[in-house]
Amino acid sequence: MNVQVSELIVKYMERLGIEVIFGMPGAHILPVYDSLYDSTIQSVLAKHEQGAAFMAGGYARASGKIGACITTAGPGATNLVTGIANAYADGLPMLIITGEAPTYIFGKGGLQESSGEGGSIDQKALFQGITRYHKIIERTDYLTNVLNRASQILTSPDSGPVLLSLPVNVQKEMVDDAILGNIKTGPVVHAPRDQSQPIAQLAQLLVEARNPVIVAGYGCIKSGGQALVTRLSESLNVPVVTSLKGKGAISENSRLSLGSLGVTSYGPAYRYIAEESDLIVFLGAGFNERTSHLWDKKLLGNKKIAQVDINEDQLEKVFQADVAINGDIKEVLSSVLTQLEACRYKRKNPTKIRHDHAPTQQPADSDYAEFKNRFPLVEKFYARLNEALPDNTWVFDDNIIFAQNFYKVTTGNRYFPNSGISSLGHAIPAAIGARFADKKSAWAILGDGGFQMCCMEIMTAVNYSIPLNIVLFNNSTMGLIRKNQTQQYQGRFIDCDFINPDYATLAHSFGIRHFRIETMQDLPVLFDSMDFHQDINLIEIMIDRDAFPNYSSRR
Fold first, then answer.
1. Which of 363, 433, 463, 526 is found 20 to 30 A from 17 (Cα to Cα)?
2. Average pLDDT of the chain?
3. Mean pLDDT of 532-548
């Protein structure tokens, strides 16, 4: 049966399993929007294209499915850049559909043209560095090949953003929908590589080590391997630290959890690795600037190193490993546990695990205690949040440093730090996107600077009756900038301080609930009176603009 290309594209998205698409219509993409009218795919109108891309990313992170967004040509497409870059940095499967000016005016100065012809914006060059695949579809004769290539990337374990740009005249052309039968939309199954030797070597390293430690990253969560990380840890009595994105790879309430490793962490992870361990096992964790404490040599010195990652490019990118395995975390850990069960091994001596490093047992003059004393209201808020919502909670966090130290992530909830390109204005739209994937309690945590970059998307939540909890840290400054200008620029403050709106009045204008926390006495009232599952809540927490974490970013 002959159908318009616009309808074929929508049928293709349905076959990919896409259930919701975020975006904004425009003249050059209206044929696809018209085809969405009769589709099972729910279209969601965002307030800004960047918000739509962040929503698609939040949906992908929370569900593990393909996130999707759609915009028109020109500024509709260019406004997506930061959201796509964020998805690229996090390796998220995201399909982006954009419109384009008709092909017959390419090079003539068409309105919003981005073909790269005749001095127009070159969309391919613009997106080439932040997508895994980008194509302006100028003809229909290679449509099958383009869609197969897009599917291959979107369903790959090592996925990323795919952008398909459709000139408006091509969207209206007729094609035979039988070509859908030639497009593979399921995951590509590769023959497993023989990893028996390196897996046996990893098992042997674990048996021989005196004080091994596991560094669990986002790869453990992405593969669904949390239970196996816990099983390996408990069977050998080995402590686990996580990367920031890996929080929740093991419950942080576990006696074997040493919290999160990183330059903004005041927990015990760094000291245990530097002072106690003789083997570090990296599981789906990169050794980037944040995790490595700016590549501190003390962390890797005089230790054996093993690394497992599904992304081959991550293997030995920063260090040389004694064993490096390119594979799925869940599959590799299952094989390692089988190897261990087949041999005789001694559990590691629990007296060697320095539980006195735990934050609750640190001395009063420790870095952690000093940090907690600077932000007592924030610390108590997270303690109450841990108690009230220990499971079935999604937290999207642009602030990062507070949650890294105060929020204990269990395997029953999920923590999504904005660590990809750390773009402000991400948390609110990302949490909205996640809420379209599931009905869990969704939280967006951010500062007042970032809030003002994305607060208009609150109306998207209002328009679609999406429950959402927004935690806003109010200090009337760009906190990181003020910290750096204090530590490194002799307090020469420029463009960091600002005047905030009245957030209670702003919340009222949105038609949502507002609660302001200024003292400890406000916290029980908040948790006793607010509905965190059905309402849209703006929770404002007042903090001192001159209270800083004492770490230095050396920037």
1. 463
2. 90
3. 94
